[in-house]
Each structure stands twice: as structure tokens, then as C-alpha cells.
Amino acid sequence: GQFWDGEYLKSYADEIMLATRRNSELHKGAAMYLRAAGDLMRESLARAKKQTDTARAVSFAEGLCRRKIPKKGGKGREWVRFIGGITPLGVVAYTDTPLTLCKNRVIISDRHGSVSSVILNTVRQWALSSGYEILTLKNPFLPSLLCDHIIIPELSLAFLTENAYIT
Question: CA-CA distances (angstroms) from residue 43 to 30, 96, 104, 106?
């Protein structure tokens, strides 16, 4: 604010305050819609999890890990990041990033995230216990419940979720 022309801005004080109030109202509305979207996704995920054969998904993931992630020893490290977000332009996901970083990719198509979350959590634990550094890329709607992708740069390997908003 040190470079503002205070006298000039005073002549627009009413317009600035009106715009500020309108902006605040729009932010409140957007937050309400995002909470509702999160609630719907959370409910959809809970219903899908009830129909998920978790033991079978873990077994599949462990077999995948044995084939794709060799044990190297030591303890791994994890960086948690977001590869996308919710913006005024809608959901923006920078899906080219894992494609640029990794030559080898495993695509998991999962509309609700119930199976992919089991597979990615198993991959995450396997990779870390095998001594790899990984990038865990969280879901922008439900970051406490879902990760969308796991990247293991050393292996040039990415496990990617594909759904309606991430393609």
C-alpha cells in the first residue's frame, strides 16, 4: 500500500467498498458450493467403498508392486503435493507433469476412487518401505481421503488415477 495514491482512491471509495463486499459474497457462495461438492464426493466414495473388495484390491496392488517396484533397502521419503486444484476456471489439473517425469505408467480408471485409493495406498507403503523417494499427489476435493497419483522418479514410474476430472 505504500505506493497507493490515497487521495485518488478516496474519490472511488464507494465503488471500491461495493466491489469488496460483492467479492466477499462471491467467495462465501463459492465456498458453499465447494463444501457441497466435497460432501457429495465423500458420500459417493463411502458408498463405493462398501462395494469394494478391499482384500482383492490389496492383493492385486501387492502383485503389481512386486513386478514394478524392486526392493532396494533403506527407508523412503515422501513429498505430498497437489497437481491440480479448484480455480475460478473450474478444476485445473496439470496431468502432463507425471507424463513428463515418467516413462512407465500404470493407469487406474476409477470413477469414485474406492479401488484406486486402496491400490495407491498399497503402492505408497510398498515404495516407502522399499527405500524410494516418492511424490504423493493429493486429490483437490478430498485431500484427507484420496491421493490421485504416486510418482517414483528413480524408477520413472507413475501410478495415475483416471476419472471424470482427471484424464
Answer: 20, 29, 33, 27
Question: Looking up cell 460483492, which residue turns up?
Answer: 22
pTM over 0.85: no
Report the distance separating Cα 161 and Cα 1, nearest Å: 44
The beta strands (E) that lie in 94-140 are given as 104-109, 133-138
Angle at 116 between CA 159 and CA 166, to 5 degrees: 70
Look up cell 478516496; give the residue. Answer: 10
CB atoms within 10 A of CB 99: 12
* Tens digits of residue pLDDT in 38-94: 899 999 999 999 999 999 999 999 999 999 999 998 999 999 999 888 888 888 888
CA dist 21 and 56 (Å) reads 53
As a residue count, the chain comes to 167
